[in-house]
UniProtKB/TrEMBL annotation:
It comes from Lynx pardinus. The lineage of its organism: Eukaryota, Metazoa, Chordata, Craniata, Vertebrata. This is Arylacetamide deacetylase-like. Keywords: Membrane, Transmembrane, Transmembrane helix. The chain crosses the membrane at residues 5-23, 43-65. It comes from the Eukaryota.
Length: 97
């Protein structure tokens, strides 16, 4: 029973060390900043681990994860959204109505 308690305590301390970052007092929601920072650190560590294993290059993995955040262009009553290219560069144009 003693080993499990000590292991749980060590894992808790290491988890808190991984999550905690010092933030200024004037930030309204420091927990949100810590959550986003933990998400980014975990994602970065995962990407570097996958690259270390030789599965894929880090940039390809990051591009794969970023593809989940792509938002399709949607127009509404206030904005018209168009996708086009300028000099072979894809751009999204937002035109207010």
């Amino acid at each position: 029973m003693g080993r499990k308690t000590i292991l749980l305590l060590i894992m808790g301390v290491l988890g808190a060390y991984y999550v905690y970052i010092p933030v200024p007092d004037n930030i309204e929601e420091p927990w949100k900043l810590m959550l986003v920072n933990t998400y980014m650190k975990t994602l970065t560590d995962l990407v570097l681990f996958i690259e270390l294993l030789g599965i894929n290059h880090a940039m390809n993995i990051v591009m794969f994860f970023m593809s989940f955040q792509e938002v399709p262009p949607t127009s509404d009553e206030n904005v018209t959204v168009m996708e086009t290219t300028f000099n072979n560069v894809p751009v999204r144009i937002y035109v207010p109505k």
